[in-house]
Amino acid sequence: MEFDIVELSRLQFAMTAMYHFLFVPLTLGLSILLAIMETVYVMTGRPIWRQMTKFWGTLFGINFVLGVATGITMEFQFGMNWSYYSHYVGDIFGAPLAVEGLMAFFLEATFVGLFFFGWDKLSEVQHMIVTWLVALGSNLSALWILIANGWMQNPVGAVFNPETMRMEMTSFFDVVFNQVAQAKFVHTVSAGYVTAAVFVMGVSAWYLLKGRHTELARRSVTVASSFGLAAALSVVVLGDESGYSATHTQKMKLAAIEGMWETHDAPAPFNLVGFPDKEARETHYAIEIPWVMGLIGTRSLTEEMPGINDLVEEAEKRIRNGIIAYDALMTIRETRGNVPDEARRLFEQSSDDLGYAFLLKRYVDDPRDANEQQIAMAAEDTVPGVAPLFWAFRIMVGLGFSYIAVMAYFFVQASFKGMHFPRPALWLAVIIIPTPWIAAELGWFVAEYGRQPWTVDGVLPTALSASHLSVAELLITLAGFVTFYTVLFIIEMGLMLKYIRKGPSEDVEETEAWMARHEHRLRTHDGKGPFAPEPAE
């Protein structure tokens, strides 16, 4: 078997990124759920909500620490495995990551410490504020990372400087408010909220099946189902927004996800299922839903959506225009200080397609020497793997809709049916605990694999981005990362299961103090009020 440096580098980064994202969504969602639970505790004074916050906070802490460990390692790979990428676009890509470290990560890390060690040092309101700041820090961290990733999907606010041979930022505002980045942020954090809601509901369902910690479990199911229902609905709505933005920024990715080879008359249908065949340029046995793809992709009934074949032809035109830009760029480099006006004019006219000329570097050292066959091959390279994208997207969407049904059922049972949960429903809640992670990983697969052959869409091909490493070095580091991350994953699972089996600690002194206050209130007034506790049993 022949190993390729670029493919090994991609494999290593994919492995570390997917391991890292096992921890991220639970951190995002649990941080908000903790803030909600502690807010209820401050409003009611009931110790059960304090116990809930502490218990779920312990699981949050385990997940947070291991998420940080895997995230730091992943970011170092930009310098180790993707040094040319870091050189070429580091001025833009590095800025959001720097802000994330300075603003979000330190905010989050500081207040995580106060959350765990400040229970007896801070007032109830102060500690609640700390918990909300932990949630804010977690979500801000995701925001800046997704701004960086969104720029890779839609590189706005930057231009190529022929003098430095690098991309340079022209508008930080455009980078931050990139439509792809904003859509990815809200979609990703909503998916994290669903992940945490399913986790909390599943663990609580297990307690109810075992008849343990039932008061905590019932309240946790109530919070998780209502929060999870809102989040699941948001994921579907915001996923639709991602599809709409892809129509303008990543047409090839959207066409591949849809398995749409030919341009359809408006409005385009949605292929519910089918079997994409890249060799035959056809999706066999497709079951179509009329109009749906046109409405998702264009928000209209009159706009066409281009198919893969037309987009390949468009890519070929852009490659030819990119060759003109490349030729002008070489002239600029060779005549530094005395650049001909014609060369500068040609470069300015065609520089947007320079990245397409770089696709030819896979086949020829100088894109200007490419023949017709090589140009056609480079254009064909712009088509990602259609079948994997097609099915990954549909499994992800199917799981997303299933969470709406599950959360709606538990919400109704908790809110209107006296918290009566049939045992089959509780077992279902336990069984589906891993599925949000599957959906999240599939989502990232669609986003990143669907962008190929680009590291930065339309700007820098993946084949040019990797460091000059040896196969042996990559294999050794890949084996090391797999081993290290597997050990961390085993530690995570062991600690989580240990503390789930142990359950919440019984805060006896706090409970007795609350009962004394409660009895005093009953003796001094009728107990009515917006936050009045339930009568003691």
TrEMBL record:
* Cell location: Cell inner membrane
What kind of membrane protein is this, topologically?
Answer: Multi-pass membrane protein
Annotated GO MF terms: oxidoreductase activity
Chief location: membrane
The answer to whether keyword Transmembrane helix applies is yes
Pfam families for this protein: Cyt_bd_oxida_I
Give its E.C. classification number.
Answer: 1.10.3.-
Q: Which domain of life does the protein's organism represent?
A: Bacteria
Q: Which residues cross the membrane?
A: 20-43, 55-72, 92-117, 129-152, 190-209, 221-239, 391-412, 424-447, 467-491
Cite the entry's keywords alphabetically: Cell inner membrane, Cell membrane, Electron transport, Heme, Iron, Membrane, Metal-binding, Oxidoreductase, Transmembrane, Transmembrane helix, Transport
What InterPro entries has UniProt attached to this entry? Answer: Cyt-d_ubiquinol_oxidase_su_1
Family membership noted in the UniProt record: Belongs to the cytochrome ubiquinol oxidase subunit 1 family.
Protein's UniProt name: Cytochrome ubiquinol oxidase subunit I
